[in-house]
Amino acid sequence: MSLKFAPPQADAIPLHVIGQDALDDWTGQQPKHVAHWVASAGFTAGLGSTLLVPGKNGKIDMALAGYGTAKTRARGRFHLAAVATSLPEGNYHLEGLDPERASEEALGWLLSGYAFDRYRDQSPAKARLVAPKGVDATRLEVIAAGEALTRDLINTPTADLGPAELESACAELAGKQGAEIEVIRGGALLKRNFPMVHTVGRAAEQAPRLIDMRWGTSGPKLTLVGKGVCFDTGGLNLKPGSSMALMKKDMGGAATVLGLAHMIMALGMPVQLRVLIPAVENAVSGNAFRPGDILTARNGLTVEINNTDAEGRLVLADALAYGAEGAPDLMISMATLTGAARVAVGPDLAPYFTDDAAMVTALESAAAQVADPVWRLPFHVPYEAMIEPGIADLDNAPKGGFAGSITAALFLRRFTGNTPYTHFDIYGWNPTAAPARPKGGVGMGARALLAALPEVLGL
């Protein structure tokens, strides 16, 4: 699996990117034998189509990549990644691509080389791209590596990626980037006042833990909090089998913040980075927490448990309260938190919540630039009453089924104090293969955040 650009080479095959409306003009400028070859092959430059053009010696002289129309391109992204998967092995350099799309297409090409091959040989694209002129090749390679880390973690089943293995992945990343890491495990969680992390994870064979990674000694303080529920049975409110099948991905928030953390550290962003991951498995045993229990969180708020399947917000609450104690300039949480978010925006958009107008402006602009779509949902204050059960300060699973993603976000915000806060309720899974995004685990929102953070933090 190669997520690197090919070195510039004189013998790289030219790959001409041609839109349907430009095909006639392009062929009219070619030698007759090329124009005849294109016509006889029936090449129409449809989006994602390819054509190899031989030279007089029978070797590939050039390749053509169909770029469709503006209308067809608007319905997707990373279009040249589809081309990469259909070209034979070799090195290619782009000709005729709009420079404004070069970074997106180059990243997509890199990501077409990703395959999750831990358990079975796979066949990622083997065509390698010479970095187009004007793109930051090093940055794109770092981003691709961060995305690959996120995908690998999400795709790995819980038998091989429980809380202990997630801790190991954090330690490995910290070692590579020179970060410090502290892990609080098992009974020490109670001694250090992380009661809800302990309660959610205590029924599992692997002890629950709070992973705390720090990097950087100067600049604004940025804290990332990722939900690390390595498997979610639903607890005593057991999920049906159909709902449990993908629960290995319930640590997708942790995987995504680790991918983002890799990008930040590898690129040397001048921030004081902190990553907090409550890593647990929500299992079923005699000591599992129960519906009707009332828990006291790290910040002293009491929480009535009306559904043990709403556990992600519980472990995040302790981690957010801990993060807020460090007075960061910005705190961001990422979590595969609610099915309501999927119903609202589907699997391709990363919904987020914030009251920071500067964050909204920067994030929306960045998301469009880097082809990482996001969608803002509201911290709708009138819904606060829905998460207040009366018997305790908060309800972890309000009845009624309305506004589930919003009420979950409001719940989390209760643990952030006065810290500037943004929350992402992501899916972390691509249900249907698409260019540069095979079926399986996928990062959402990380690239948009990476591009937006310098503006938000005043770097």
Automatic annotation (TrEMBL):
Top EC class for this record: hydrolase
* The keyword Protease appears for this protein: yes
**One GO CC term on file:** cytoplasm
What keywords were assigned to this record?
A: Aminopeptidase, Hydrolase, Manganese, Protease
InterPro entries of this UniProt entry? Leucine_aapep/pepB (IPR011356), Macro_dom-like (IPR043472), Peptidase_M17_C (IPR000819), Peptidase_M17_N_1 (IPR048816)
Q: Which GO terms describe its biological process?
A: proteolysis
Q: What is its EC number?
A: 3.4.11.1
Locate the Cytosol aminopeptidase domain: which residues? 307-314
- The answer, when asked if Protease is one of the entry's keywords, is yes
One Gene Ontology term of the molecular function aspect: manganese ion binding
- Coiled-coil segments: none
Highest taxon of the lineage:
Bacteria
Write out the similarity annotation: Belongs to the peptidase M17 family.
Annotated protein name in UniProt: Putative cytosol aminopeptidase
Query: What gene does the UniProt entry assign to this protein?
Result: pepA_2
